[in-house]
Amino acid sequence: MKFDAPVPLAEIASLIHATLVGNKTASAKGINEIHVVEEGDLVFVDHPKYYDKCVNSAASFIIINKEVDVPEGKALLIVEEPFEAYLQIVSKYRPFQPSLDMVAASAVVGEGSVIMPNAYLGNNVTIGKNCVIHPNVTILDHCIIGDNVIIQSSTVIGSDAFYYNKKTNREVHYKKMTSCGRVIIQNDVEIGAGCTIDRGVSGDTIIGAGTKMDNQVHVGHDTTIGKNCLFAAQVGIAGAAVIEDEVILWGQVGISKTLTIGRGAVVNAQSGVPSSLPGGKAYFGSPAGEAREKMKEVAWIKRIPEIWEKVKNIK
After folding, report:
1. Which domains does the chain carry?
2. How far is residue 201's CA from residue 257's CA, in Å, rounded to a whole number?
3. pTM summary value
4. Active-site residue numbers?
């Protein structure tokens, strides 16, 4: 999430009651997670395992729960609960703003675009030129839709990320991490009916130009989908996955989080993908493997009863 204007670190430190160490005169441009931070961003960390990674990342400012060595030019904002500090910052600089109009006053719709009845456009939504937004589509705050995009009925763009902080005081419970990211849909994309595309937690979920989605596809938070991909019905993609250009996912394929599927890969129907796959190959099964090898495995599995009878007879 980028702030509307750079915010002095002293102002942020005051808001979250932090001790400021290092560059005390700088201003932050935004707040983001570690995998999407840029120079000028804030990032937060509350586990020693990730201290070094965050301090040495592209982020200029680190919200942390322990004082550590800080590189020159960067700053630490030391607080007891960095997660709670993140929630305070999001609440202050991107607060929830209800919009009770079907098309918010701040929404922008490009020339030639058609918004059909009962479609909802939230605050600061941008729709490009020559788009068709069918009935009962919901496009939530800050999402950006390119030119020549078609979105079929009952699809939801920009729903909150499925992202929670696990607490284990007396019993396990989960605290919601407020989503302040966006969904960006590039030009010439078509999205079927009943799809759901979650916004980034603090970054962007991106659908590349020319990509086509069938009905009932789900795309998790912070996922990046390349150009000219093809997804059949009931594909599910978990958070922060990277799907490169020209990938085909057939019906009911499930993709786990934080992995990469290489350019031009084809994943056959009802496959489960738990880890990254190189591009340019066809895959099948759960866990997914190269399709030809998986089909050989299936053929051998079918022969197990026959083999077992032969083994018994030998005895």
Report:
1. 2-93 (3.40.1390.10), 108-294 (2.160.10.10)
2. 14
3. 0.92
4. 221
